[in-house]
Amino acid sequence: MDVLTAARLQMAFSLGFHIIFACIGMTMPFLMAYAEWKWLKTGEEVYKDLAKAWSKGVAIFFAVGAVSGTMLSFELGLLWPEFMEHAGGIIGMPFSWEGTAFFVEAIALGLFLYGWEKLNKWVHWVSGVIVGLSGLASGILVVAANGWMNSPAGFDYVDGKFLNIDPLAAMFNDAWFSQALHMCLAAFVATGFAVAGLHALLLIKDRRNIFHRKALIIAMVFASISSILIPLSGDIAAKSVAERQPAKLAAMEAHYHTEKGASLIIGGIPDDETKTVNYAFHIPYALSFLAHGDFNSEVIGLDQIPEENHPPVLITHLAFQIMVGIGTFLFIVGLVYFFLFWKKRETIFKNWFLRLVTFCTPLGFIAVEAGWTVTEVGRQPWIIYEIMKTADAVTPMPGIQFSFYMTLLIYLFLSAVLVFIMYRQIKMLPVNYPSSIAHLNQEIK
Question: How many Å apart are CA 134 and CA 36, to the nearest integer?
């Protein structure tokens, strides 16, 4: 394994591991705060129990996410020194603000965890909202930095030098909004369905459990609203990519040949040798419309891109298909949930629907991982799009392979610890909350 491959794999595993905690940190506090708000409005103790239980999960994932996030910050400098030498002064602002948001989140989480009997009830609730807002801000700021890599701005590039740097223009680049919007909604979809799936699984064992019933309803509301909205953000993101990164769009769609009225390709396996896609389903004119809003518009294919600048088509295309396929499925599940909640509410606690929601538990996070694969692999061979290639940014230090193996061991250890702690917490639900147990046998309205 050469240095470039090892560095890429280490960064891929690190990002893939950390993004799960980033999604949970961006969204889970809102479920927690909403549960407490329901307790404050209704006085039902089960909502207070839910808020307390979910806050413990937030704390656990926050701690592990802090470790993986710290490792990522070191890896940027260790693995990609040439990139950081130039990019550090340009995108340092969103990273520094992200650090500030992280500390605000940590302080607010501490107040929420230990302030139940010490703070005014509404002040305590506000601290939970601040946890969510600061977590969301952290995610948006990091995505803004990543957006800059896809759409460089805020500097003049003259003779290999970065001049006239404007950090604000760099942070609010052309890609940040579409990426941040799509990422935020994806985080709510992934976390919402994961939480709902966990409680659905526990409800299969005890369908009259009030604690898990209330949890399922709250999580599914967040997940379903986000799953219905995310196709809109996906459309915005796709049109942005079509304008800024035609090579990435071509790789996403395995679109080898420039043409007007281009077909949308669903499924299929790209073949770089023959420049065709096998076993695919084509929808005529749809790609032109989705990319540019015109059924007859021209969509640039890979034939217009120098071959040395082609992204890995197979990986990018398959990852994109996985993301879109899962997103479509969860969109349908979200619609079904709202229909049942409106027409036949008790049906959402039937075994068939609980099993469906349980099946959805990992799907959102699989889609998030696939989406980030599209974002990062689809930009290759560039680390800064059309400015600096990834191969030119990698460290010259030999033996980086050992760093990759060590990183894998650390993440495996963290994963094992996390699974053990979360399993223990789940086993005690809702045993730790006597007020919920008192409701378990009450008549369900």
Answer: 18
CA-to-CA distance for 152 and 169, rounded, in angstroms? Answer: 9
Chain-centre distance for alpha carbon 351: 29
Residue 68 identity (one-letter amino acid) = S
Euclidean distance between CA atoms 138 and 134, whole angstroms: 6
Pick from 38, 24, 60, 47: nearest CA to 426: 60
Burial of 169 (0-12, 13-18, 19+ CB in 10 A): middle
Residue identified by tokens 């619609």 is 335
pTM of the model: 0.90
pLDDT in tens, 143-156: 898 899 999 988 88
Cα–Cα distance, 251 to 248 (Å, whole number) = 5
Q: How confident is the model at residue 445 (pLDDT cuts 50, 70, 90)?
A: very low
